[in-house]
Amino acid sequence: MKINQKKQLAPLPLFDSLEYINNQLPPASLSSTQKNDFLMSVSFLKSYVGSLGTFNSYRREVERLLHWTWIVVKKTIKELKREDIENFIRFCQKPPKTWIGVKKAPRFIDKEGIRISNIEWRPFVVTISKAAHRKGVNADIDHFELSQGAVKESFAILSTFYNYMLQEEYVFMNPVALIRQKSKFIRKQQHQTQIRRLSPLQWDYVIETATLMADRDSKKHERTLFIMTALYSMYLRISELSASVRWAPQMNHFYRDNDGNWWFKTVGKGNKERSIAVSNNMLNALKRYRKHLGLSTLPSVADKTPLLLKTKGKEPITSSTYIREIVQSCFDKAINKLQEDKHFEEAELLNEATVHWLRHTGISEDVKTRPREHVRDDAGHCSSATTDKYIDVALRERHRTAKNKPIQSDT
Fold this sequence. Notes:
The protein is mainly alpha-helical. It has 14 helices and seven strands. 29% of the residues are buried.
């Protein structure tokens, strides 16, 4: 299917953020059939308001589908067949340049107390690595590429969307389920997916840097040290540290059981609550952090103090971006120290690190010594198969046997 790039003007966003979705009204420009599609989509998205990450992913895919359906093929989602979904996936793999942005822009903005569409928003966004960005490389729409993971996720979300509409009797078939050869779009992987994490040396520099920062400026960086320790030691996702309408972490989410063991309760991916075993080192980090805050050594069940406080006031941190900036500041100082000590390769690789690498690093280190079922439950993995991805024993042995392979025979 060929798309006229020049005629495909950038569409406006359809769905606002999670906190506004309950009041979402269809744009006045939509036809009656398009409004029905819109309202059905809003109803579907409301099913996922308990998980910000899931809501955002589902909103992205449904929004892309509606734009393509209405603008490109001029149909409704009720009319789409198997071939249409295949064409939609191909479209997403190579969308018109006018549909691609070089930065993530909010869908809607406030203007004089009214939520209006942001004309800078685009359905697709070019991403570049952190290291490339730090070197001054700019995002280029000519370099847009939809990853294999994104294609796979799109299939899964669209199938869920159609199953929902089937239950609501809005459609009478799931065209995504009829695609038998998804391998046309998704390559099968024989190799084990690489887990992005810090090396032992990198982590040593990061945690030593965080400790030094806290020792030199406790007012500003005791919180930094606690964040770095919690992300690594308890494998927390960034969403499990920031407060939201779904979950606001408090001091009393650290609790002691009848055996005197300490746990941390959180709500993670999929709005699933879990308890994480708290190590002695993590408990010591909590004690240090609470002492800095002027609190008792350990929290009581009545201690509802927000786990992470804003720099000023007693309100909890609600911005995951702010936490990312705190972590990145620590990474940057660790990178400088690695360079000073002439560990140039380690410093260069640390340039790529993100907050989520700390979770991966903590899990990877723990599966070396702890039963995988214990790590699985602390990490909140749905199955042991996910945890197994962090076990490198077979890979190390495979590489060891290949490392000294000769090119020529000795004879």
